[in-house]
Design goal:
Structural class: alpha+beta
Protein name: Acetolactate synthase
Order of helices and strands: EEEEEEHEEE
InterPro entries: DUF6497
Pfam families: DUF6497
Organism: Parasedimentitalea marina
């Protein structure tokens, strides 16, 4: 069931946790690194940021926002910013996790935090996700490459959280 909040956003009731029992599949990175396949259900914002807009990042790769999700499934509010970043693809990509990590840090500080402040949303965690192709949140796509990081918002800054 979806209910609308005062922020003109949609929340999903009964959302599954962000990672499967026993944790996500790890491949490199500081923490979650690369999750291939599964991220479980949440609901997109009813009025997202300028979806399909490119954002500048330190690596110089093309990063496009696809959706912003509010997820109360972990037992507290998490806001997920999901981006398509075609350069991270396994076969032909030029951006490794080591180069994409600072991009996610930058997106959290420069894009997510101002958005949260302007919409008066105070989440417990912010998740920045990069995927090499659009993947429906919660759908499995073993061929997709996804990098993600979790942050704790503190004083309008993103503090990286080890998963």
């Amino acid at each position: 069931m979806i209910r609308f909040s005062r922020h003109r956003t949609a929340h999903a009731d009964g959302v599954a946790p962000a990672a499967p029992a026993g944790g996500a599949q790890f491949i490199g990175g500081r923490s979650c690194g690369c999750l291939l396949g599964v991220m479980l259900l949440a609901t997109p914002l009813a009025t997202p940021l300028a979806a399909e807009s490119s954002y500048p990042v330190p690596s110089g790769q093309n990063v496009t926002l696809t959706e912003v999700l509010l997820d109360e499934g972990p037992g507290e509010l998490w806001v997920r910013f999901r981006f398509v970043a075609p350069a991270i693809t396994r076969e032909t990509g030029s951006i490794s996790y080591d180069l994409a990590g600072p991009d996610m840090d930058h997106l959290c500080d420069a894009m997510a935090m101002p958005y949260l402040t302007s919409h008066q949303i105070a989440p417990a965690r912010v998740v920045i996700s990069l995927m090499d192709r659009p993947v429906v949140f919660g759908a499995q796509d073993p061929a997709a490459t996804q990098f993600f990081e979790t942050y704790r918002p503190v004083d309008a800054r993103c503090i990286w959280e080890e998963f």
